[in-house]
Design brief:
The chain is of the alpha/beta class. The protein has 13 helices and 22 strands. The model has no long low-confidence stretch (mean pLDDT about 95).
């Protein structure tokens, strides 16, 4: 007898990170994303998946963010040998992201190991989840299937899928998955992460068709973003006022999408002469520099607004690309007039910490957040009002001006999520994933009011029969 199809989420259930969604039709098993847990959930990366990677026939990647691709090396370590489906730009970005994650883990391991040796407890130090060499090896043997948007393709013997532009980051997709159950055609849609249609870099998300079941992200299901024009005006105002008052601006930035979005605005400021002449903009993120190269390679995917700068979409005379550590350290000698863009976006590592250590205690400076800050990260602590922070074992007072501008989010807000859902010709069951629980409760209520439909908040490991 044919088994009933079910879905199980092994990540991004009542939390934002760790996306990993298993679809089992009884004839084949596929996984949609295989992301890393971040923030308070990081310990889960060391726990078993909850399924056998050897049994997975295919992996679909919706986009290249770490919380959607970060456990792929662990999937291969567990014996996965199936095909991997994604937009080619996603493969480019995913490799950069995983190489960077491997490097950070190796560096952290070496530091912790040295300290543990002095205590005679080196056996207690966890080894990296994966290394850069392992990532290189995986991408050599990976059975990559490069998809085209809006073209239905065969995933397994009984599953077909259509990838559509999600407008979130370069190469991002939402996926319409088709299969038969008891000779009845069914379509399950996974939203991946849906883009903010006003992000300025990418086109708005494509229109979906219909869904018997929709698994939709809910990161900002509780709120609406600031108007993008107001956000850009506020951003420019913070930059101009801080620099003219003799300060510097620190911008913790995600290397993917946000860095390119910020560069595009700063380029616009440079061209319209609103960026002070003596200002210098530093992109102090080797990863962001690599990703920007990928964005140039796939410039046909960018928005029309961004393509007007087709030759150099993100470059201008006052921009300095910082390559090595010594160049990065030299920035700290600049007393005023610097705009420093660096990772990590949530201040839980990376070069931004060094710049914060040298600048955050000075009231002339500004720390400008332009991205989501997950619970448990240093960035979240700061925007929640921390008076002191600890960086490299040193307690530092927070005296710089703190700004948070939410309009730059690469995620759709509540209004846009509802508008996108309203475009479905038919929408039956709704399941909420990829969001903090308190935000999902609000979004669930709003969905009920808007559509007169009940939405279900997915639990970790819960079997949802489709």
């Amino acid at each position: 007898m044919e088994n009933q199809t079910y879905e199980q989420s092994f990540g991004a259930a009542k939390v934002v990170t760790g996306s990993a969604h298993l679809l089992d039709t009884g004839k084949s098993k596929i996984l949609i994303d295989c992301g890393m847990f971040q923030g308070l959930e990081e310990h889960k990366n060391y726990e078993p998946f909850g399924f056998d990677p050897k049994e997975i026939d295919a992996l679909i990647i919706t986009h290249g963010h770490l919380d959607h691709v970060g456990r792929i090396p662990l999937l291969y370590k567990g014996g996965f040998k199936g095909k991997v489906f994604a937009h080619p730009a996603t493969f480019d970005i995913a490799k950069i992201v995983l190489m960077d994650a491997g490097k950070l883990q190796e560096e952290e391991y070496k530091t912790k190991y040295k300290k543990a040796q002095r205590r005679g407890k080196e056996k207690d130090v966890r080894k990296p989840l994966f290394t850069q060499d392992e990532v290189k090896e995986i991408f050599k043997k990976m059975n990559r299937q490069k998809i085209e948007y809006d073209k239905k393709i065969k995933i397994t013997k009984d599953i077909k899928a259509t990838f559509k532009d999600a407008g979130h980051i370069l190469g991002s997709s939402f996926v319409e998955i088709d299969f038969k159950e008891f000779d009845i055609k069914k379509r399950i849609v996974f939203s991946g992460d849906l883009g903010n249609k006003n992000n300025g870099i990418l086109p708005k998300p494509h229109t979906p068709t219909y869904a018997d079941a929709l698994f939709i992200e809910s990161t900002y299901g509780d709120r609406n973003h600031k108007n993008i024009d107001d956000s850009i005006r506020e951003f420019k105002s913070v930059i101009i006022n801080t620099l003219l008052n003799g300060g510097n601006v620190l911008i913790p930035t995600f290397a993917i999408e946000r860095a390119q979005q910020i560069l595009c605005i700063l380029k616009e400021m440079s061209e319209e002469k609103s960026l002070p002449k003596n200002a210098k903009v530093f992109l102090d993120s080797p990863m962001a520099t690599k990703v920007t190269t990928v964005y140039k390679k796939w410039d046909q995917l960018l928005s029309k607004k961004c393509q007007k700068y087709k030759k150099h979409p993100f470059e201008f005379d006052q921009l300095r690309l910082v390559r090595d550590v010594e160049e990065s350290k030299a920035i700290n000698k600049i007393e005023r007039g610097a705009v420093i863009i660096a990772g990590s976006g949530m201040c839980n590592g990376g070069r931004i910490l060094h710049h914060m250590k040298h600048r955050i205690w000075n009231p002339r400076n500004a720390l400008l957040f332009v991205g989501y800050q997950a619970k448990g990260t240093l960035g979240r602590d700061i925007i929640d009002g921390a008076k002191f922070i600890r960086i490299y074992h040193e307690e530092i007072i927070v005296k710089s001006k703190i700004y948070t501008i939410n309009g730059f989010s690469a995620h759709a807000d509540q209004k846009e999520l509802l508008e996108w859902m309203n475009e479905f010709e038919k929408l039956d069951r709704i399941f909420l994933i990829h969001g903090e629980y308190d935000k999902q409760v609000i979004f669930k209520s709003v969905i009920h009011s808007y559509f007169d439909k009940k939405a279900h908040i997915v639990e970790q490991g819960e079997k949802i029969y489709l």
